[in-house]
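User: Can you help me understand a structure? I only have the sequence.
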Amino acid sequence: MKIKIPEDLKRKMDELGVDWSPAIRRMIEREIQNLSEIERIISKSRMAEEDALELGEKVSKSIAERFRKHVTGDRC
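Assistant: Let's start by predicting it. Here is the structure, written out as tokens:
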């Protein structure tokens, strides 16, 4: 799989010295687990599609924030 990363972001990533491959793989695995769980919940509920999309967006934002904290070491 290839992803495009803007040069300014790539520079920042390089400055951190993180091995990004396993970090991103874990993030993708967690996202898949979360989306699978959302699908399971939605299939058993009467939740409207709009509500499901909103929930998915909240989960994605939460995951992104946890990943950012993990990478930067910010535990606050």
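Now, to help you interpret it: Residues 28-40+48-76 form one domain. Residues 56 and 62 are 10 Å apart (CA to CA). Let me know which part you'd like to focus on.
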